[in-house]
Design brief:
By secondary structure, the chain is of the alpha/beta class. The strands form 5 sheets. It has a 9-stranded mixed β-sheet. A 5-stranded mixed β-sheet has the order 17-18-19-21-20. A 4-stranded antiparallel β-sheet has the order 10-13-14-15. 50% of the residues are buried. Bound molecules: iron/sulfur cluster. The site of iron/sulfur cluster has 13 residues, from helix 11, helix 12 and helix 13.
Length: 802
């Protein structure tokens, strides 16, 4: 059966429905909903087994690669070790092979002991602790029923989790904001405890029960409070994760939010009570008595049944589920209308902006304006007409890309957004290296101020980002040398006399965008001069010229493409790269590229302009087996395509167009979520025998828009002519237009596209539909059908055949 609902991948399981504290801001016991009074205190074994079974069944049906389960309460430690062990073991046993369990417990910490920690270490349960800050802040709400402070017990619990044997269990702190607390004192108190993460939570409130305001406290006191914390967090170098801040940073760059309380991602959270009833998000308890109820329970209903509940569906419908005010709001992409519960008003239900609307807008604009976001904000007020989606790309430009094309201006805009991303990734990779201040980084920073064109030129080099991506993915073997090499290349381009040391490996000093110099291994010092450069090698020898310059091919119309065969990081494509090209091969490439460029201008004029604006590098790959054409774009190397030189120029033209589609779409996906990233189902592309993730189908479809148009143009050129070439063009056109149209529909029917993704698919459909109406001889359709049957019989169809 094909699942038709968005899957849940996060589950809150209530294992105990009472608490040993009496916090007056608690949404479970102190707000409108009183259902807890009617529930068993401790979850039963039969309920636990049924819960585990339902989650396992759901994970299998939706082929989930991971689920997160949070054991919650009340106070979950009150359930006792036996119940917690039962929960962990039942959940692990029920999940299908290949589905990982991220199991957590959220506790007030009062009962946490060595024995519990040892149990959690054995069962791999991460622990999150609620703590509102320093003692004064914590005691404002988090007290025992008799008024005693819980602060000492919570600090003891955090101390336990900071012991070396349990530190890996420490998931973080959950801090509920109170604007009467001093944000500086709260931040410092939390930071002192060295948490890996802190969640700052807005106190639950609705339009019926608005949040506390202080006399003279300003229009957006919660934003002011959080922005004060944000400034300290940035000044300290972001010492721990803060989902609220990181979500704003991410959504400003077009990425997904990390928390349900911000952003437009559909909710994927289900809540199970101690009696086995399903509820909607716990925060709804704040709205009205019975608000979270679904009328469903784990014994009678599956999680797919729950997903069809209208209340859940409303939280999964993205922008369509928001109020009109939110849909028109300039920061909606980052805000998403805030937490669902905070929108409640008695007369209009949830069809309202958040009761924290002013705070959310001030917070998002404050973070965007702080320079904390590594790229320009992606959602900005409209200049009139349609709201702008992104500072990087106008709506009309996104629509143009969706149809497969991309003018020089549009592709240049993608290039600028990629450059901003590369800068951010380099900074993050450098931060993560823990090197503090160092010569190469300082030089790059200094040159950025005085010679920005030199820095931009080297950072726009496709494999600059590839280095950062490898470092951020944990590949430390790549070393810090490439960053020093980037600084050296920028120094050479700036020509101001700056010097920087660069480690040399394998006898070559590589200067990105320039070429390489043969010097002994060790540390070489590169000095950029107005009239060239000087390399002083580890053995004292001095070189002033490149032994292997990066070679560029000049193409008609005066633009050049680099043939990258010297950068050690060019090995970022799916296929092995060629070694330095010998002269004869270089000549072969030069002729083939010139001819291919002419063919692109003739056969794909709607694509050629964008290719010229964005394709800076062709990286030669080794030939494929048995002469198979090989080409590849790398998501982390914008502006480059890898290709093994094919036998003919027309094939090269088609490979360039095909791969540059992947380059463009990769840049679009870095700006916008076009699909649900949590959707881990696999989809068949019509031209492949193996199923792929949705993004693979999207990429393949987008690339074949260009392929189809190429064959459509060739077919038109052969109009009225007979012969083998004409017949093949018609058959290829018949095949690829059908496949591409099918793939567009498959994407549209996936149910996993975001609103923007649906719009993007409509753009692709707009290009495909006219091709389907082009009349073709029956023989062409028969040939296409024959190829299709051969593919269905098990052969892999090459996507590019000339
Ligand atoms: S800031 Fe206000 S209007 Fe804008 S999306 Fe958020 S809640 Fe809605």
């Amino acid at each position: 059966m094909t699942p038709t609902t968005l899957p849940f991948s996060q589950f809150v399981v209530k294992v105990h429905s009472r608490c040993d504290l009496a916090c007056d801001h608690c949404y479970v016991y102190e707000h409108a909903d009183t259902s807890w009074r009617r529930r068993p205190k401790v979850i039963g074994g039969d309920v636990l087994n049924a819960v585990a079974g339902r989650i396992g069944e759901h994970a299998a049906a939706h082929r989930l690669s991971a689920v997160r389960v949070v054991l919650h309460g009340g106070e979950p430690l009150l359930a006792g070790p036996d119940v917690l062990r039962h929960a962990a073991e039942a959940l692990r046993a029920a999940l299908p092979p290949g589905c990982a369990l991220d199991l957590r417990i959220h506790t007030n910490g009062v009962q946490l002991s060595h024995a519990f920690c040892a149990l959690f270490a054995e069962l791999d349960v991460k622990v999150g602790i609620s703590l509102d800050g320093d003692r004064a802040a914590n005691d404002r709400h988090r007290r025992f029923a008799d008024g005693r402070s819980s602060h000492p017990q919570v600090l003891r619990a955090v101390g336990l989790l900071n012991e070396p044997e349990y530190r890996h269990l420490f998931a973080g702190l959950l801090c509920t904001v109170d604007i009467e607390n001093d944000p500086v004192a709260v931040y410092r108190a939390l930071a002192e405890l060295r948490p890996p993460a802190v969640d700052f939570l807005l106190p639950h409130a609705t339009w019926e029960q608005p949040p506390k305001r202080l006399p003279g406290g300003g229009d957006a006191p919660y934003a002011d409070w959080l922005l004060a914390v944000h400034r300290l967090w940035e000044a300290d170098g972001r010492p721990f994760a803060v989902r609220t801040f990181e979500s704003v940073h991410r959504t400003l760059r077009g990425l997904s939010s990390l928390t349900e309380s911000l952003g437009l991602e559909p909710s994927d959270l289900a809540v199970l009570e101690t009696d086995g009833t399903f509820e909607q998000a716990d925060s709804l308890k704040t709205a009205y008595d019975g608000a979270p109820a679904t009328g469903m329970n784990v014994f009678a209903h599956s999680l797919d049944d729950l997903a069809r509940h209208p209340g859940i569906a409303a939280r999964q419908s993205g922008p369509a589920g928001l109020s009109a005010a939110c849909r028109a709001c300039p920061v909606v992409r980052s805000c998403g209308g805030g937490l669902y519960a905070h929108r409640y008003r008695a007369d209009t239900g949830f069809d309202n902006p958040s009761v924290y609307c002013g705070d959310l807008m001030t917070l998002i604009n404050g973070i965007a304006g702080s320079g904390g976001s590594p790229s320009e904000p992606t959602t900005v007020p409209a200049q009139g007409g349609e709201p702008q989606l992104s500072a990087a790309l106008a709506p009309a430009q996104l629509d143009e890309l969706a149809r497969g094309y991309g003018s020089a201006d549009t592709v240049a805009a993608l290039g600028r957004s990629q450059l901003a991303l590369t800068r951010a990734m380099l900074a993050a990779a450098w931060d993560a290296s823990g090197q503090g201040r160092a010569e190469a980084w300082e030089l790059l920073s200094e040159l950025d101020g005085v010679a920005p064109a030199a820095v931009d030129a080297v950072l726009a080099h496709p494999y600059a980002r590839a280095w950062a991506a490898r470092r951020l993915a944990g590949d430390l073997a790549v070393g810090l040398g490439p960053l020093a090499a980037l600084a050296a290349a920028a120094a050479v381009r700036a020509g101001r006399g700056d010097a920087v040391a660069v480690p040399v490996r394998d006898g070559w000093l590589h200067l990105p965008t320039l070429g390489r110099v043969a010097v002994p291994d060790g540390e070489a010092v590169v000095t950029g001069r107005a009239d060239g450069f000087e390399v002083r090698a580890a053995d004292g020898s001095v070189r002033t010229a490149l032994d292997q310059p990066l070679r560029r091919v000049r193409l008609a119309g005066g633009w050049t493409v680099a043939l990258e065969d010297v950068d050690p990081l060019r090995d970022s494509h799916d296929h092995p790269v060629a070694e330095r090209l010998p002269e004869a091969e270089l000549l072969g490439w030069t002729g083939a590229l010139r001819e291919a460029w002419e063919l692109l201008g003739r056969d794909l004029p709607g694509y050629a302009e964008g290719i010229r604006a964005g394709l800076g590098t062709v990286t030669p790959l080794r030939p494929g087996p048995a002469g198979r054409d090989v080409s590849s774009a790398a998501r982390q190397a914008y502006g480059a395509v890898g290709i093994a030189r094919p036998a003919t120029a027309p094939t090269l033209a088609l490979l360039l167009a095909h791969e540059f589609q992947h380059v463009k779409l990769g840049a679009v996906l870095d700006l916008f979520d076009l699909h649900d990233r949590a959707d881990d189902r696999l989809y068949f592309a019509p031209w492949r025998p193996d199923p792929r993730p949705l993004e693979g189908l999207l990429q393949g479809t987008y690339a074949h828009l260009a392929v189809t148009e190429y064959w459509g143009t060739r077919t038109a050129a052969y109009d009225g002519l007979a012969g083998e070439a004409a017949g093949r063009a018609r058959a290829q056109f018949a095949l690829w237009r059908r496949y591409t149209a099918e793939a567009v529909e498959r994407l549209a029917e996936s149910g996993a596209l975001t609103g923007l993704g649906v719009r993007f698919a409509e753009g692709m459909r707009e290009s495909v539909e006219p091709w389907l109406a082009v009349p073709l001889p029956a023989a062409a359709e028969r040939d296409a059908e024959r190829v299709r049957r051969e593919r269905d019989a098990g052969g892999r169809l090459r996507s590019v055949e000339v």
